[in-house]
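ok so heres the complex, two chains, lmk if somethin looks off
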Amino acid sequence: MKKIAMAFIALAIIAGSAFAEPVTIEFWHAMGGKNGEITAKICENFNASQSDYKVTPVFKGSYPDTMNAGIAAFRAGSPPAILQVYEVGTATMMAAKGAIKPVYKLMAENKEKFDPKAYIPTITGYYSTAKGEMLSMPFNSSTAVYYYSKDAFRKAGLDPEKPPKTWPETFEVAKKLKAAGYEYGFTTNWISWIQLENFSAWHNAPLGTKANGFNGLDTKLVFNSPLQLKHFTNIYNLSKEKVFVYGGRENKANSLFTSGQVPMHFESIGGYGAMKATCKFDFGVAQLPYYPEVKGAPQNSIIGGASLWVMGRKSPAEYKVVAKFFSFLSLPETQAFWHQQTGYLPITKAAYELTKSQGYYKDNPGPEVAIQQLLNKPPTENTLGLRFGFMPQIRTIVDEQWESILDDKVSVKEGLDNMVRLGNEKLREFERANK
Amino acid sequence: MTKQYEFSSKGLSYLLVMPQMVIVFIFFFWPAAQAIWQSLFIQDPFGLSMIFVGLENYGKLFGDPAYLDSLVRSFLFAGFVAFTALTIALFLAVQTNKKIKGTTFYKTMLTWPYAVATFVAGILWLFMFNPTVGIVAYFLKHNFGVEWNHLLKANQAFLLVTLAASWKQISYNFVFFLAGLQNVPVTLVEAASIDGAGPSRRFWSIVFPLLSPTSFYLLVMNLVYAFFETFPIIHQVTWGGPGQATSILVYKVYKDGVINLDLGSSAAQSVVLMVLVIGLTVLQFRFIERKVTY
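and the predicted structre for the whole thing:
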């Protein structure tokens, strides 16, 4: 009798644990600080909403560190199910055919409802094939805008509710701000992403052939055209006149704006939350300026940020969790929460509408400016984004040549030509390694 | 001068050395071998396709003017850092060795910077020299009219990283120089003084030669430090810029390997760097050690 009782108890425990234990997957990401807390909260919400599946978020450091950790884990045979990779790593992830599982296949196989049309096209287009098949799930997407100090505008006798719309106007305003007593008129982050990539897209100018690399590995860079030459020459001249100041690579120039020293600053909308927290003055957000003589400008801007990739060689049970999690992520409520807490953009139109109906944009018009910039016009083949191999290195090449231009080591034309030449060398190497 | 202790059984000595050798093997030899192996291939980051290309990665490196620039630059950088760190440390050690008040205080204060982690040192210098908010940059502008902007001016960036790298190493050198100085028999120096030798003569003819074992050791260590361990400073302060003004070899290895995921080229660069520094050390032992008086 005792033996049978023991057997029953053992069976019950086994059966119980088999039912109670949720399938767990790991989600490796690079979201630190506040953004990391919100990421963890979203995973918590998902886990709490049901008991069959569990997502464990793991912070792995910077974008390059996280990507490397994922790659190393894959090579060691145990990658996480979800890996966050920054947008410039897209070409590398896409070329790794055996290492990743495309999102559209994952959702179809797991019978999750998935309508690509519900997503904002400029966001999902970046991470999709030419046929519109989504390969990775957009997570934190941003775009470039400029921030300006309304207090500074008032001081210079300018209307704080009418930020400049064109580049000639912007340069004039910058000069007026300098005349009003500021040491410099404007600065910028991310020279490549904002003043080259987004600049070109906003003017419907191509960065490279084959739809900026979407249509083939044999793409060639072409951005050393008269338009970009004019723009870089303008900024170089203003740098000599001390109207423009260079603040360093990536987002190092932020302190120039937040300290109140430089009243206009080009930066990502993803920095909106940080700006709100650190700026002690009244500031506004405006769309990127354009050159009015360029036909078709303004077109639409392109995104930055990162997306979630599903790694290959995992079990079907784990893929089910990923699919469920992605559906949860796409819910308007989740997206609205993420958008409002971090400043990153919502990826679905429904989330945008929900946020609007909640009146969020009345107190925070900045993020809506960014969304409208993305939706300004339907994207052309020049403005879906870009897909160049070794893009992190190409951005570094742009940074280096730009610094050489400012330091008078090369002329503006030489610098731009160097960027294209050296960048093309990288593209050919990537093509060779991934054929 | 040194007594040789002999172990009765060879087995025991091997056993005692083995843990260290295991660590050296796993963390030094094995990765080095892997680097040599990987440098012979072009591969995608995930390792899904590996194309054997022999020495092509190396050929590309030496055909790349930017790489050759970086090579020259790294030597210049190492030279400047070693020279600065050694001379300043020696000067400070000699001064602290004198019988003056507060030597313990000086010795403690001068040794402290070594405890600062290299990347923290980088951040400290970054803040002090920040073109907009750094106190040194401010001071230079308002008192000397010098426009400090290491983000734009290549020479200033190079100067800044040299200073930051030397600063840390001065403490390390100081400790060794001080110990070396205290091993110089006072009688010799006093005898020279009685014979009429001035302080400068006493130093260069007696003290300095007797310091040579220490100096030689420090020279080797400083050069190795400047080639490898200055990576955090470059990474924090200038990221190899402006342009490529502070892009030294070890930083390029990181950029190409970790950021750009160009594993073949990065592996080739690290092999070249390894061979370079080994070669440099061998040269030093061959030529300079002869002049060292033990």
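quick notes: The mean pLDDT of chain A is 91. thats all i got rn
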